[in-house]
Amino acid sequence: MDNNAAAVKALELYKGNAKLCDPHPSKKGTASAYLESSSAHSNSACSNSKMNHKDVHSVRDNFKDVNYLTEEKVYEILDICGEKEDYSPLIRVIGRVFSSAEGLVQSFRRPKPHTKEELKSLQGKDEDKDEDEKEAAACSATGSSGENDVQKLAPDEVSVDIEAVRRVYERLLSNEKIEAAFLNALVYLSPNVECDLTYHNVYSRDQNYLNLFVIVMENNNLHSPEYLEIALPQFCKAMSKLPLPALAKLARLWSHYGAEQIRRMVETFQQLITYKVISNEFNSRNLVNDDDAVVAATKCLKIVYYANVLGGDLDVEHNEEEDEEPIPESSELTLQELLGEERRNKKGPRVDPLETELGIRTNDCRRPLIPFEEFVNEPLNDVLEMDKDYTFFKVETENKFSFMTCPFILNAVTKNLGLYYDNRIRMYSERRITVLYSLVQGQQLNPYLRLKVRRDHIIDDALVRLEMIAMENPADLKKQLYVEFEGEQGVDEGGVSKEFFQLVVEEIFNPDIGMFTYDERTKLFWFNASSFENEGQYTLIGIDVHFPMVVYRKLMGKKGTFRDLADANPVLHQSLNELMDYEGSVEEDMMITFQISQTDLFGNPLMYDLRENGDKIPVTNENRKEFVAQYAEYMLNKSVEKQFKAFRRGFHMVTNESPLKYLFRPEEIELLICGSRNLDFLALEETTEYDGGYNRDSRIIKEFWETLHSFGEEQKRLFLQFTTGTDRAPVGGLGKLKMIIAKNGPDTDRLPTSHTCFNVLLLPEYSTKEKLRERLLKAITYAKGFGML
């Protein structure tokens, strides 16, 4: 057994017999001891300081009186130990200070500036007394009570000299024996800190208590294997007990760190989460939600996440105005209210308490310090039982943690699954309420949102029916959709609804209709500012096409700005950028004013003044920044205000009580709606299952995949449309699509068919590869309509 293994074994034996925390702490427990030692620390520190000057040699032999550390004191002890080539005194001092909350809180304090009165009194003293008085003033500054210090600290400031802590760690961590002292001290410190915060509310008494978390987190070795087993999990549990104001202060402080420091902290907590996930077998009976270390590390990671947001490129000003009229709610009661119970869940979207405390939203951040993707933990996502996690999320019990409360750690696939459970439960809830109403009031049973439409009048039939439902009872829009095409026999198990949406989108977003415009360069749609359609149609159409990212940001409450023009209108964005960078005289050379022109639906020019009497106000080098901002404001917000408000109103009708806004960022909503743009058919081949006698090694199956891989992009999309009802890959890519290829008889002239509801392709066993290609292309090119097989 080597030295390290022996030390760990000894530590485990020690911990087994040590009483680290009272199960029923008395009024005068750990915190009281901490506060008493803190108040007494000033006097002992001062006497220690004087003794050091009078009897240096005796102190050098015995450092038992060192109860807290400064950078200078560490270097002094280090030099003495280096001379004797014996570092055991320094190891003992580090063990004593770093295992004591009061010692660590007092350590590495920033020097406090003297008041005017102190400076005058110092100047008036004799030279003989100058040195002693300066020491006394310094001692009172260092050992003053936490309340006095905090009053003079900014919300993002602590009394620790962070740079000094970093220099000390850099000197000491290169020595393996000294590093072990930090590890062992943290093991002893963490349970006591957890006890302080849980039972004694110590932070509210002395906010300098936060210092110890700042100091420990500066240790660059926290993510190393030695810490992962005991020390770091216990420390994370202690940190997770910090009250909300302390968490916010830490986030504000860390937001001033650079990307490198933020990434180091992220990697520390991610290492612990991954280590615990991999070393345990989590399943539906052994939930990862019940692992204290994983939960605590995730809560700590949330602090770093908001520090990453705060430290990034923030835009807290350009916010969309709330709807003047509230979103119409169901006239019906909820199931709980019908049964005489209180409503369990508050209406409206959930907001994270730390987000509220900090006064920012994730959507305010245009560019974080490090990419949001680095906060996602894939091993955790793989073992998370989302149905259970969603239940914990909705019930909001204190003893069950839901990872949906920390959506930054979840990937889009997992979040989508959470949203799926939420939608299904809402549908089932509306269905139960409908059944209950039918029993109590004798109403006709109608648990589904039924639409019967004609193919050649699909827009008129659908929008008229939906508009009536929206006016009568908007809650019906949350019911499960059931579509029936007039004159067709198809039963809607999902596939009919898919085709319905596809046809509606093709019709509504047809430029000839005039509701939207299409940019051939960007392949994106935008609202037609001069559309004649009424607002009700924008309210009810939903989203199912590629919009610029600014649309999703606007739906999440942020206005479009100049930088959003880059993808919404790249030509205009480039022109305005050139205007901003122009080095000559803008007024004389360009001769433009604060009046701009647009074309309406029929190509007629329309003039708009960005400022009052804009045609008389020239754009100059001095006001061009204002011109660019006003131009972008008009193009992205004012010109389409009426259309977008109606569009957003429809969006909120069905998502107002959904966790959509809480879980997803704008770019993730685009992925959720439009699917993955990357069509990886190799991934689809890997996950496809076979039935009816086919398997992966069947001749026709091999020929089928060879044929499909040889198709062009458009033909591949047609195949997806034919087989699944949509030409897009789901969130997570085609590998997440569960497709089945089933045998549909021997060689024949019949075309392949499909069950789009279940993503099943029925494929006859064609005799040749050429015949397979010809039959398949004909099927996917001319497929439309539903029938009974």
TrEMBL record:
Organism: Labrus bergylta
Pfam families noted in UniProt: HECT (PF00632)
Catalytic residues in the record: 757 (glycyl thioester intermediate)
Claim: Cytoplasm is one of the keywords in the record: yes
Primary location class: cytoplasm
Molecular function (Gene Ontology), one example: ubiquitin protein ligase activity
Classification via PROSITE patterns: HECT (PS50237)
Any one GO biological process: protein polyubiquitination
Subcellular location as annotated: Cytoplasm
Protein name stated in the entry: HECT-type E3 ubiquitin transferase
